[in-house]
Here is the input.
Amino acid sequence: MNIGSAIVKTFTSQAIVSAITSTIFIILLGFFLRKRGVFGPNFGKVLTKVVLSVAIAALSFNSFMQPINEKSMHQGIGVLIWGFVIYILLIFISPLLYSGQKRDRKEVMGILTTFGSTTFFGIPIVGAIYGAEGVLYSSIFNIGYRIFLYSYAYIKMSGLKMEKDNIKKMFLNPIVIATLLGFILWLIQPLMPTITVPLMKNGVAAGGMTQVAFYRIDQTAVWLWRPLNYLSSLASPLAWLAIGCTLGSISIKEAVTNKLSWYYSFNKVIIVPLLNLVILLILNAVHILPLNYVAIATVVIMMATPTATVAAAYAISYDREAVLTSNASLLSTVSAVVMMPIWIALLGILQSAGIFH
Here is the structure.
């Protein structure tokens, strides 16, 4: 298929177009309601807490309630490996993008460029476009992200050694618990006792029988899976409303005059995901790390996200370029909202053109 046909196919795909418009429209709705005063100044923070402590935790866990086979296991392990490799690479590469800056600023901008808002911004978009498979890969990818974010980023930003409180944050975070538990349960399915139950699809009987591990609640305990599914379905709309609400609370006028913030935003939402895409396509072509379309697209979208909230909080808390961090966070969020539909379309075009499958 030539590129022209691939473009047409991508922009006539109802799934892709509706995912893009849903993201943009709900973010704009949050922005409008905040500007009109319907949402108060702290409403975005409340929504964020609900999304991070409940909705995405449920989404991450439920994403692992699916069959495992040799192909999906290889894909998942490949994403897990890449999740560690790319952060190690970015830790060394990102500061080089700011070589003309003073040491402290170079270090801070390097960390902000390395760590994006993969959980809050990335997973809801991935889930809306690629469904359970995308959420599965994004949750696995985030294992490495969280380890480096709560260890390396914290130590570099604070100038301190790893503290007990931060280790608690790393391992007692609801999303981390849900992800690790779900990942382990998904991996050990072939080793667990199985039961034969009526086949269920999205909580509804699909006809026939199936044999699954006893803890596959999507098949064996729909009464438990369904409330988790309701909670997980809140992740995308609430996250997008919170993003719009946050944008509506901040003065963009001050941030747009800062050239370094623009340069950072370009690096964060264009250069970093492009680097991931190019390397993964090369590794896929030479069969070193063969990943399918959904796995590669998930990684690219996760890396095209704006500044990680935790990384920005580190910078502000320890007075490490606090004003610059705030401006960079704002502009990268606006830039990510603009670039995300472009990345989604580009990935769809590459798939349609047969670049990867």
